[in-house]
Amino acid sequence: DLHLSIRSAASDVYKRQGQEMSQEIGPEMNQEMAQDIGQAAIDRPLDDLIQTQVSLAKLTSYRVGGLAERFAAPRTTTELQRCFEWADRHSAPVTVLGAGSNLLISDRGLPGLVLHTRHLRQMSLDRDRYQVTAGAGVSIPTLAWQMAKLGWAGLEWSVGVPGTVGGCVVMNAGAHGFEVKDSLVWAETIDPGQTD
Length: 196
Hints:
- It is a single chain.
- With about 200 residues, the chain is an alpha/beta fold.
- Helices cover about 25% and strands about 25% of the residues.
- It has five helices and ten strands, in the order βααββαββββααβββ.
- The strands form three sheets. It has a four-stranded mixed beta sheet. The protein has a three-stranded antiparallel beta sheet with strand order 1-7-6, covered by helices on one side.
């Protein structure tokens, strides 16, 4: 649901590896997951959604960078699609920004539309299949820790990887001999060129 599931730039599903789940999600786990899940939102008008001349420095780990010509942080798949449609109508290049980890942005800024995935943090569990579906904006270390608390294996390698699920899927992130492809079941994406 990216969410780059994107169902909201892309969506990623990870499966449990190894033995059966040893514990159920307790109330504390549900509360922690709720903090990472983006709140359902009513789709906003484009005038409220797309901002002009927004500083990108505060959105990167190095705290450097100029202004985004246009900027949006969609909360829903519909808002994300509308941003892509706006960019298409205005022939504006699109840059997708996740956690901004280890990212250098020129002081000249970025042209076109910058889409920030920070609100695309929807998450759901399928206990029968030992799978989690996570939105593009979900922090990969947070997801790894939450899965470990459930007794689910497969993402241990990613606890020290800065970034989001969407970015990890796009670049097939990996560490310690493991990669996203080892656990990825599917990814849902939005085609910027398709409007329906």
